[in-house]
Amino acid sequence: MSDKIGVPLPVATRRQNPRRRLHPIALWTLAACLTFVASSAYLSSASSDGRARATHVPWNAQDILARCATLSMVPGPPADFHARDVSDRYEEGIPSTLIKNATIWTGRENGTEILFGDVLLEKGLVKGVGYVPRTLTEGLKELTVVDAEGAWVTPGLIDFHSHIGIYSLPTLRGTFNLNSHKGPILPWLRSIDAFDTHDDSIQLAIAGGVTSIQILPGSANAIAGQAFMLKLRTTSEHSPSSMIIEPPYSLNGTVVDPFAPPRWRHLKQAAGENIDAYGTRMDSHWAYRQAYDEARQLKTAQDAYCANAQAGLWDRVMGDFPEDFRWEALVDVLRGRVKVSQHIYEAVDIDAIVRLSNEFQFRVDSFHHAAEAYLVPELLNKTWGGTPAIALFADNYRYKRESYRGSVHAPRILSDNGFPVIMKTDHPAENGRFLLYEAQQAYYYGLPAPLALASLTTTPARAAGLDHRIGFLHEGADADVVLWDSHPLLIGATPVRVWIDGAPQAVGPERGVVVGRGKEAPEWRELPDVPDWRKERKKVLEYEGLPPLKVENVAGRVVFANVSEVMVSGEEGIQKTFSGATEGNGIVVVEDGKLVCAGIARTCSSFAPYDHARMVDLRGGALAPALIAFGSPLGLEEISYESSTGDGPLYNAFVKDVPVIIGDTGGIVQAADGLQFQTRNALLAHRYGITVGTSYSHTLFASDVISGLSTTFRTGAPHALADGAIIQRVSALHYSVRRPPALDLTQSGNSAPSVSTRIAVLRRLLLEGDEGSKSATVMWFGRAADGRVPLVLDVGSADAMAVLLELKKEVEEKRGTTIRMVFTGAAEAHILAKEIGEAHVGVILTPSRPKPETWDDRRLLPGPPLSNETAITTLLANNVLLGIGTPDAAFAHQIRFDLAWAAADAGGRLSPDQALELASVNLERLLGIDRALDGQRDIVAYEGGGPLDLSSKVVGVVSIGRGVVDIL
After folding, report:
1. Domain spanning 549-626+937-968 has what CATH number?
2. Is 0.85 topped by the overall pTM?
3. Residue-wise burial string across 635-672, b where 16 or more C-beta atoms lie within 10 A, e elsewhere
């Protein structure tokens, strides 16, 4: 893929003094000052009685006038910025790179410009795009040539809302620097003061093609502090400050640089529920007004001071320039020199911030999260100073009340209303490595492809005031570039190479990893088709974010036409029973919920004519087994952050005694007793083809040890008494062997039990478990020890897994039984893949694409471009019965895309059928629900493609047990 010319040298020290020229305003001002001061130390002025008197000119008049002149200067690059031939971020020793034969998305022409050609990176800059004449490369002593072979090249991705470095992973007590508890108004705080350069998330983000991030303070304060735009490249200085893209001149002192226009500063504000520690919404907005009034008064004093100085009224210029470190950032906001990022969700808060911006006349450049922004476009347009950008999640809603009305269709709706759309992760709320997935989902739900790519590049660059440097590929831009193994909007797209400031990062070939294996077919480089969502967008607006989720139940005969393939579950897994790809358009006939014929038209001719049948055109789509959601409280809660909508917390017998009235020292519970049907998360899962859920009781941030007994139910059932609503009342016994969390928000001190304590109790319960015991805890652990119910152990650490494997062997030898042990979570399971397989222990990776959230998860296997293997390929290669799950009920409907990622990352070693098994038949076997589902498995109809394709969406669910087809 590459041909290196010359030997790269070690990275040298960063250039500290870039060449600057005087800004025209500053140049004029200084010249005037010099003339003025040189002429005389005194000026003549008229007193109130008309007599002339002398006015003393202060010795620092030149400095005063220069500083005052800068107050009216607009931030931006120097006039000669684009004439630079070397980046101020360039470090000696970084070789030049020529990327040849690339398909180049430049970001220009509103994201529509695509070139085929070369990209030259030299001295930290893009020196050529498209056609690169030989004269530009002939004189280069060191040149690395990379043949892209037609692959896509884009600017480096920008995560405009991230907490990498200040919420450093793995989470430890000293790495959580997200929020201050010192009050609601803290504009003087700076996120760079807490940035951890050793955050494990940094390298993972680079592996996702992310080259720049905005590091925002948290959202627990109304004005949380100053944010910074950083490059993720480690510099030779190894300091946080050296990672700042354009450090404000006032960062390390108060002296303003008169030789250049000011650089943009950045500020984080927040409104809504997150500030409730300091009172209500009314309290928060009073705090805003009070703070901005302080800033306005200071600004007025500064303006008056400068007006007198510039008018030569030196007798009125008393003392030093008025300033206050507490409010100087807000004064700059009022002067239009700060890019404000506003955390916000609901219309009520959007309205309040819009009013605030107009009262104090400052621009809010971007609204973040903004779950209800798409519902109030006219309100947003009233923001002082112009249309703000909207920074969104693609599909992360319903986890708290504020986000409940959020919609996957928001990016398209906002774009249609003229708003710049930015996709972001809010890492670690979502995995910062998969920023690109946010754009892929937004594209899937209708955001045009150019805008989807722009949402991670050009749009955040403009919102940050850094589009002269980043977000585009044009001559003179910073050399932040990503070479992809497939079209960037295809699920599974992975960087082959990443350059930041022209420096190659340690991904792909740089670390001996093969990227793009299994993606050789031409379709991997083509923009994928996506479904038509116009009807859904209309309903979302009609019902203000909460459209009804009822489906039409159709009995009798339903005929699916234009079917490309049919897959069904069997004893050997998922098997393809029909493919119309080579035989012509397929027909599938369903009678009272049962498939009675699948084939080409003449095969099912005995069922024609279809005059009284419900016809559904799949447009080349497929029928496939329904999927299973495992690992979350799906069906046990409506809103995860609202405890009043869920089953409630469990009693933790390790912390305090369980109430006597329960009659069981362990306080073991059955999740089936707390099931809620018709929650929005469950109904959405059903509409996305996840028709079965296995859930158990566990609460957000909790350190529960005995999580009780999970249950398996149908996500679309109306209530618990409906036929087939509860598939299996008890599916597994759940127990946690995780290390006590560093940030346990539900308990204090050292109350959470140690790993060794948890294992000691588990050993006793398994060895002494008794089917006949009156204690529910002793009885169920006895059943688990005898293999009558699966024992699902939540564990991340490979060290703890090793002990559990020994424990399994010990208990089985003493009791003469076989334990059906399953590890879930299991981020480090790949380390013991061989031993786990030999012990016949199952694994459910939850989530399937982990991040090093805790110490127990830190040794994850990242997959390409950081490793050739993934946890999935490693475990499957060692004959481990493997499934995947999701820990968040709000993400349950995304499982089919998790499977698409698994297949793409496997490099051709995981077929679509095998990928589907990870969330269907494998989970059935692991949890023992295969017998309960026998003959009652739902089948999902996808329009426009297969279950793993971006081109498809679910249009029907065939329910054999209920004898109907659900038409969406």
Report:
1. 2.30.40
2. yes
3. bbbbbbeeeebbbeebbbbbeeebeeeeebebbbbbbb
